[in-house]
Amino acid sequence: MQWIDMHCDTLSEIRKGNVQSLRHNSLCVDLDRLKRAGAQAQFFACFVNAADYISPAEGRGTEKKPGEIYGSEVWDRAYAEVIEMADSALREEEGDFHIIRGAEDLLPEKTGEFIGGILTVEEGGVLNGKTERLDELYKKGVRLLTLTWNYENCLGSPNSRERTVMDRGLKRFGMEVVERMNDLGIMIDVSHLSDGGFRDCIRHSRVPVVASHSNARSLCPHPRNLSDEMLRAIGEKGGTVGVNFYSAFLRETDGGENRADAEDIVRHVRWMMNQAGEDAVALGTDFDGFARADLPKGIQDVRDMEKVWETMRRAGITPRQIDKIASGNIRRVIREIWR
Hints:
Helix content is 38%, strand content 11%. By secondary structure, it is of the alpha/beta class. The chain has one domain (3-337): Metal-dependent hydrolases (TIM Barrel, Alpha-Beta Barrel). β4, α4 (132-140) and β5 (142-146) form a beta-alpha-beta unit. The mean pLDDT is 93. It comes from Candidatus Mediterraneibacter stercoravium.
């Protein structure tokens, strides 16, 4: 089964350890295992947590409360780290791995020739009010931007259990960024975004929007998941939602033996298909974005993807639908958005 995964945090984890490579490591994702598991392409997030870029004098590691925004210097440091992560991936290009910059690299006749890396940025705050940074990121190969992570930034607000935060829309600069992303051909990723910001993206983007790693809120009432209305909006817009493998987004769980399993993944897939349509569901594992103990039972890394496909088959999802979920739907969106 050839597949494309819309989100993993492997690059940022490698940067933390500073000893492992993208080619081979002890994380959930590396190039050798991707190839053996049948992957055609992997979206690699250049993820930054702004709290990690506060200087010691400023109180390193101090997280902001809702409504508090990190200073300009913090975002500039985080942006420099994003550039370094992108460069680190580019340095690994050789042989059967290269960074994909155009939809033509994902044509069916090229399937099996290489493992493609698609660079993304998870935390739009690194733009720090400068739209020209989008152009620089595009030149580096970045083709998707997750507008927020867990903090308010220059674009908007994150998802939250606080209604006043969740209802906030995009800021003026956020609207400008949506427009420029449309012009460049960078995917707008609404995972982590507030519901108000989500609605603004749906209204103002001229092209489909995606939720790279989110699940169904009706099945697991976490604010990071999407309501049925939001799922339908993405489907009607022509976008995709990548099903996330984090147990806490798959079922209400306290971890341990109560963690999710592959059946929970398929339960969300079926629900999202019913709400958004079979053309709107994709894969967004979030591998390396959380502890292995929080993965569904029986899944430890990319080598276990066949268990997911087999569970889908047993649940009655057809081969045609599985092909769409595995790669067909995100291929279509890439063709519609990328320049």
